[in-house]
Amino acid sequence: MVELLLAAVLLAESPDSGLVCFVSGEIYSSQNEIRAALAPTNCPIDIHQQGRMITMTSPKWVVQVLIPENIGKQEFLYQWGETDAKIGDRTIQVSYKPAEGAMSSSAAGAKRS
After folding, report:
1. Torsion sign, CA atoms 27, 105, 20, 4
2. What are phi and psi of 104, to 5 degrees?
């Protein structure tokens, strides 16, 4: 129930255009290298990568996704307001918090689809 409420709140933070916000692109993860080439669609989201962590920031929310180790090249897709991102065929739980404040969700982790 809390996750549904947060999803509604995050979606309410999307631009007034009524368009759905996505972050998509490719990631690459090996023993020696981790890369993310991601871009937002229909929303003003800043995206940063530090190591295995992808951080996506809107004016009001921070969403983080942990890239799994050694998965090679995979497609990435996240719909703003959802509690999971897709990396290849994996569903990855995201963590989120208000941009100015304390954590308000679960820790990042992976679950198989």
Report:
1. positive
2. -130, 20
Sequence-ordered alpha helix ranges (H) in 58-98: none
Lowest mean pLDDT among 3-12, 20-29, 42-51, 55-64: 3-12
The alpha carbon of 4 is separated from its chain's Cα centroid by a whole number of angstroms, namely: 16
Alpha carbon distance, N-terminus to C-terminus of the chain? 21
For residue 103, the 8-state DSSP code is -
Task: Give the full edge-to-edge strand order of the sheet including 72-79.
Answer: 34-41, 22-29, 72-79, 84-87, 90-93, 109-111
Read off the pTM. 0.73
Residues 62 and 90: their CA atoms lie apart, in Å, by 22
Gap between the Cα atoms of 84 and 74, Å rounded: 16
> Please, which residues have CB within 8 angstroms of residue 54's CB and are 6 or more apart in sequence?
27, 36, 38, 47, 48, 64, 65, 66, 67, 76
